[in-house]
Amino acid sequence: MKKLGILFLGLMFAGVAFGQHNHEHKKEVPPVKPGEPTFAEFDKVVHDFGQITPNEDAFVDFAFKNISGKSLLLNPPKTSCGCTTPSYPKEPIAVGGEETMQVKYSTKNRIGKFNKQIKVYAQGYDAPILLTIKGEVLPPEVVETTPTKKKNSLFKKN
Question: Which of 3, 37, 89, 100 has its CA 20 to 30 A from that of 18?
Fold first, then answer.
């Protein structure tokens, strides 16, 4: 009887544990492919910074036009890394209106090549537009730290 009670208790805990699992997985919609109809037309979707000096932020502007046929309100963009910060218009954009999204890449404590994505979302549209920034942060200059020999001024010879 004691074993039956333990078995029942174990099944009850298992039922509670599995009952907490959310069976409704929200499927992420893939980004819009080039040429597919969407809400905005960007002047470019990829920007290559080339080589960047370390410890200086890099900025790029992505200009775009509302081609949705209705007033457009952007949702907060999602980035692939905390080092990438987009600034986007928070007011509705009129049909045919043109705006700019500025993206900042922080090079602080980062050296080497990078390739970061920004997903741009708009209300009423499931598929985001994918923007990409890439480049290479150069290593800091090496400063020679070898001491130099100085003449001792106490024993000057005249």
Answer: 3
Distance CA 131, CA 46 (A): 6
Record the pTM. 0.70
Give yes or no for a contact between 49 and 55, defined as CB atoms under 8 angstroms apart. no
Number of separate domains in the chain: 1
pLDDT confidence band for 97 (50 / 70 / 90): very high
Residues 6 or more apart in contact with residue 132 via CB below 8 angstroms: 45, 46, 47, 115, 116, 117, 118
Of 65-74, 110-119, 135-144, the range with the lowest mean pLDDT is 135-144
| CA torsion through residues 110, 116, 121, 126, sign | negative
Residue-number span of the structural domain to which 106 is assigned: 40-137
